[in-house]
Amino acid sequence: MSVSLVDRSAPSHVFNDYLAMRTTRAGTISPNDRKVHVTQTKVSTIFQFRAIDWGMENCELHVVIPPVDRPTTLALYRLNATVPLDISTLSFNVRPPRVAKLNNIVPGQDSLDWHRKLSCAMDDVLVFELACSEDEPSGSCDIEWWQAREETAPAVYMIQRSTV
């Protein structure tokens, strides 16, 4: 899985994980925690998953968000990608096009665990974009968190289930 930000207002900008890096005697360490950030007019987050197991062709995408102070409407899109994205060069200009809006997701005063079942064959690349919905009132959409590798909240993650 990979997580990367893109910025519509700086369409050529490539984000890196320098904010989470730290220097040790062994060199620079870039942890697996990744920033998820969505704003009204600029920033969205790209999530990339790869189905890796044969016979595990039922996938379930989860978006888990704890309670938020003010409700906001996010949109989740499926992107047109069949090969892994190079996140070292990923920017708004080169992100794959949106092919479908999966749903609006509305975090609010209660915890949210949105999920959707998807078909996923072995070696499939599944890419999604979490953005502010066009239905959201101007200026009211801004959500961010650090997604830890081993945590399931807050998080966007994929579960593969057996088909055999």
Provide the fold topology.
Layout: E1 2-7, E2 22-24, E3 27-29, E4 34-39, E5 43-50, E6 58-65, E7 74-79, E8 98-105, E9 112-119, E10 125-132, E11 142-147, E12 155-161
Antiparallel strand pairs: 1-5, 2-3, 4-11, 5-10, 6-9, 6-12, 7-8, 7-10
Could you tell me the radius of gyration in angstroms?
16 Å
Terminal CA distance reads 24 Å
SSE pattern, N- to C-terminal:
EEEEEEEEEEEE
Number of strands: 12
Number of contiguous helices = 0
Structural class: mainly beta
What is the residue-averaged pLDDT? Answer: 85
Strand order of the main beta sheet, please?
1-5-10-7-8
Shape: globular
Beta-strand share of residues:
over 45%
Q: Which terms summarize this structure?
A:
164 residues; mainly beta; five-stranded antiparallel beta sheet; three-stranded antiparallel beta sheet; 12 strands; 47% strand
Tell me about this structure.
- The protein has 164 residues and is mainly β.
- 0% of the residues lie in helices and 47% in strands.
- The chain has no helices and twelve strands.
- It has a five-stranded antiparallel β-sheet, with no helix packed on it. It has a three-stranded antiparallel β-sheet with strand order 9-6-12, with no helix packed on it. It has a two-stranded antiparallel ribbon with strand order 2-3.
- The protein is globular and about 45 Å long.
